[in-house]
Amino acid sequence: MQDKKKIAIIDYGMGNLRSVENACKKLGYEVKIVSVPSELSRFDKLILPGVGSFKKAMKMLNDNNWIKIIKFEVIDKKKPILGICLGMQLFASESEEFGISKGLGIIKGKIKFLKNLNCKKKIPHIGWNSIIIKESHPFLKEVENNTDFYFVNSYVFLPEDKKFIMANTKYDVEFCSIIAKENIFGVQFHPEKSSKAGRKLLENFLNA
């Protein structure tokens, strides 16, 4: 382990928490699942996992007073945050899932249903798929182009500014699978379920 940075996994009720926690612990980091928003101030880095619907996730974040504190820690204090799967999508301005609903808005963009982007393949997109690296970035250190990661998604992130897209993935149509903006990082896949390559991405985030 490079340092003693403390990692918080945000538990707002919709995350794949234990597998993310175990993956971080195996890399030698001090990590805690946090269910009280005010506790985030005690941590150096944040992980926002997510499984399920965007609308329900935003309701739970709002009802449990997470939104203001997450924005303060990430935008004002510039703490690094990693969004995983739905967690990355929550960074967006809005989603069309079950009607339009607002996201955290920390990376401007919209969440779209794959079929509405003319994807003809079976939805949801489940299984191993490769990334197409668009930009070099320390987050992608020692991760090669066309590396496979494990996906489970029906919706995808369309950021307004394409410069934040570090990698795409093709599932009939190309979509953003890795995003990075300053201290904000997101992956559409599940690194905690993606073997050696997934562990390397987590390590890159935790070491940054």
Radius of gyration from the alpha-carbon trace, in angstroms: 16 Å
Query: Helix fraction?
Result: 10-25%
Structural class of the helices, strands and pairings? alpha/beta
What's the CATH class, please?
Alpha Beta
Instruction: Give the name of the CATH architecture.
Output: 3-Layer(aba) Sandwich
Distance from N terminus to C terminus (CA atoms, Å) equals 12 Å
Low-confidence stretches: none
Question: What summary fits the major beta sheet?
Answer: 8 strands, mixed
CATH topological fold name: Rossmann fold
Arrangement of strands in the largest sheet = 2-1-3-4-14-13-12-9
Query: What is the overall shape?
Result: globular
What's the domain count? 1
Number of strands: 14
N-to-C SSE string, H for helix and E for strand: EHEEHHEHEEEEEEEEEEH
- Determine the number of helices (DSSP H or I, runs of at least 4 residues): 5
Classified in CATH, the superfamily is Class I glutamine amidotransferase (GATase) domain
pLDDT averaged residue by residue: 95
| Proportion in β-strands | 25-35%
